[in-house]
Amino acid sequence: MAACATATRGLQQLLVLSALGFLATSAPQPPNIVLLLMDDMGWGDLGVYGEPSRETPNLDKMALEGMLFPNFYSANPLCSPSRAALLTGRLPIRNGFYTSNGHARNAYTPQEIMGGIPNSEHLLPELLKKAGYTNKIVGKWHLGHRPQFHPLKHGFDEWFGSPNCHFGPYDNKVKPNIPVYRDWEMVGRFYEEFPINLRTGEANLTQLYLQEALDFIKTQHARQSPFFLYWAIDATHAPVYASRPFLGTSHRGRYGDAVREIDDSVGKILSLLQNLGISKNTFVFFTSDNGAALISAPKEGGSNGPFLCGKQTTFEGGMREPAIAWWPGHIAAGQVSHQLGSIMDLFTTSLSVAGLKPPSDRIIDGLDLLPTLLQGHMMDRPIFYYRGNTLMAVTLGQYKAHFWTWTNSWEEFRQGTPGDPDSGTHFDWKGIDFCPGQNVSGVTTHTQEEHTELPLIFHLGRDPGERFPLSFASAEYQDTLSRITQVVQQHQKSLIPGQPQLNVCNQAVMNWAPPGCEKLGKCLTPPESVPEKCSWAH
Amino acid sequence: MAACATATRGLQQLLVLSALGFLATSAPQPPNIVLLLMDDMGWGDLGVYGEPSRETPNLDKMALEGMLFPNFYSANPLCSPSRAALLTGRLPIRNGFYTSNGHARNAYTPQEIMGGIPNSEHLLPELLKKAGYTNKIVGKWHLGHRPQFHPLKHGFDEWFGSPNCHFGPYDNKVKPNIPVYRDWEMVGRFYEEFPINLRTGEANLTQLYLQEALDFIKTQHARQSPFFLYWAIDATHAPVYASRPFLGTSHRGRYGDAVREIDDSVGKILSLLQNLGISKNTFVFFTSDNGAALISAPKEGGSNGPFLCGKQTTFEGGMREPAIAWWPGHIAAGQVSHQLGSIMDLFTTSLSVAGLKPPSDRIIDGLDLLPTLLQGHMMDRPIFYYRGNTLMAVTLGQYKAHFWTWTNSWEEFRQGTPGDPDSGTHFDWKGIDFCPGQNVSGVTTHTQEEHTELPLIFHLGRDPGERFPLSFASAEYQDTLSRITQVVQQHQKSLIPGQPQLNVCNQAVMNWAPPGCEKLGKCLTPPESVPEKCSWAH
Fold first, then answer.
1. In contact, B286 and B230? CB cutoff 8 Å
2. Each residue of A295-312: pLDDT tens digit?
3. Which of B103, B136, B321, B333 would disulfide-bridge B158, Cβ 3.0–4.6 Å?
4. What angle do CA A371, A376, A379 make, to 5 degrees?
């Protein structure tokens, strides 16, 4: 059996290598890699996923020319852990992007955070460098902003973008405005040199990020260097923004304006690859870091289509993502794959595209999707839904088991009073609701409900919206439970949690005086260093 | 102004006629018309509308070859009124398919109903006959089952199907089993000669209906007669069914099996049109009678995608429908139209396809969509959402105003107790819930809430799920309200309600002894005639 499996694996590799053209006598330049990572964009935001206003012609075309994944997942319902998982191929619980300050608490990298991506983690760009790639990140890093976490210390050659989210404006006294970097140095700050008009929503940031992408592609093409572009833009994260030509053009309001500008930008990137004649030598993947932020809906939040809840939760709306693979001449056009995919697969798959193997000294959660992309192979694999330090749920095939449920606390949910006449909406609960209009009794709980002995199990094919748990008494439940229990036990047996990076906060580590601030005259004085336990609300 | 508008309209008509080839010197045979009407299929049930399992390759291809409508509506959230509206081009409140027994009560045509389609209504097939069409209905009629309401008395030349829904089995004592007709006479009854296995879901009815369609098309083609096929199949109405080759093939359970069989059947119908070389002379339209029946979910109900609630309600999930127009050589491939469409438009559009005008002696609610289909024209028009005798809501452009909200009564909703361990689901409220897991405070009400003075207004572009009503205080609300009020006043000024057909019930009028029963030895003895007021639960 083992020998047979090995032989089969060898044959698969041969097929993949052959499909990539690596068996030709003169080894060609390895393919370029472009990962287009959206911020808080939901599964339901693209026309090809059923968004009723159908305002994404370029992304829909990308899907028609490539492979669409309806069952593709982020590694976490929140930005920083999801991004760390993409670049390491490992669950946040392994790479340290979680908190142990509380049970099942979401955590990320605000300005106060002490932690970031550990040096012990091997990031995708670090590994690609070994195959001669030039690597650029455009946009949001979010893996820590202290000097040791700088993306150029973790394998990227170039950076235009920001270490944290474009929140603000801050007052540069209690909190500094978020810096924007070019490579090693800050070139300005959000809301100062890089303005976002909160009243109109106007900002030209997506255009800047687009231009960075186009310039990088052209330059690397001229240099004949294989390249990795990580285009991590953030226009769909609240406060959402768009440039003037796109403002007011969507049926969906300002959020839709941002989507339209992104769609247009993706079209321009793909067109450039085609015009340069390198589309057949460039692997492109489009996805998002977590589900749409329904707390920002309807004005600044997207859509998770038919799925339950959104960002911050481990329901499908929090972690099922839009996902499109595009590689003309390699990935056949117009395919839909039901393979369960993960954002962590982009790590392993990108390495495979480059002809590299993932590190063998640690557990890598990402799978190599090339056999799926090139030959339509299906692989059995679980999807783990963590929230902080807690395994909340797992999906195996069509079944999803919830071991813990909660969205947020009653205190947060119940804040405020209904019916404020000055508010933008009619029923103005100021409370935070990750599942507006979607409360399922016993499922979307506001206390941390433990179901580890008797998980809530849903069949995601019949019930993608997670509204109808299977009966505990059914044979289907019992059979599923036993299969899932095995998988979870195996997972937990081998699990060595990483050192939690998101536990300690300190006002002194904020972006007071990033490198380059002297040249700009924009250095601020940090307060006294007082490390303290971070408080995570959700 | 008026002269200019007339001239423009004349030019439009000229363009349409020219596109249809009617300006050629030898007038060709008018195009065939095929209306594919689904039963309780939801907006979200097709891959092209984002169904995650993507099991409708033929329908998705139909959309890619034709025009997809994301904003297409039924005329009622229930079967009979919706079907009467399709065939008359008129709202149920005009054609009599409503009840005045209670306020805002849904009503249809069960076996006890006395009423049906009045002779005073002009049905689409009656009008098409004037242009030489041969007309066939395959499947569910639902416009009354007493002799005067027989489809062959209302313009159809052929019928294979049933006057009522395939409910049952009944005991032929308290209630007779539902008959299946071929033309004038019953040829058997459901669950007897036409079995449905309620345990396995097996029934070959869709295959019978498919064969009827294919045979009719072939015969009319051979006769060189223009034809109208009304394919009103019912496999996706609970109890859902599929034939053996499709059972167990869907990721979505039995409901999905039914959808897959329908998708396959639609593919076969379109292929036949192409193989016969008549696809360019056949206008095909696919839609559904009302939203998915979420009370039957997850085992026997479909999906309304991102929309609120389902069948029986006047939220989007109750009335927004999948809709695809297909007419190769006339409708350009791969289009999406944001035109607000209505099932009633199929009446007027079909007449227009046939070169006929709608009746001018009455108000017709259906628009001629040919300018949209052929030239992409957009027309301003309201969508009215009635429930029984009550105008519940109206959509104008992107805005929807609710004048009344309710889904069903507290008594119905609260029936039963949670947590029955023997049930198929974990939280077994036996109560009827048209919005499972989707209750929006103040919106999905269980009392009849009047909002006529201050309607709840939603922007369906930003908020297709109807979760966030606009603030009463906003300028957007005030502006929208004044525009919508004008439209409603105009509508109500000209409204002459038809004689309500769904008020009186009588056990004696059930399908005891349909014509042809003697030949089959299947005549049953009706009870004494006792007309009484029908009781409508929802």
1. no
2. 999 999 999 999 999 999
3. B136
4. 65
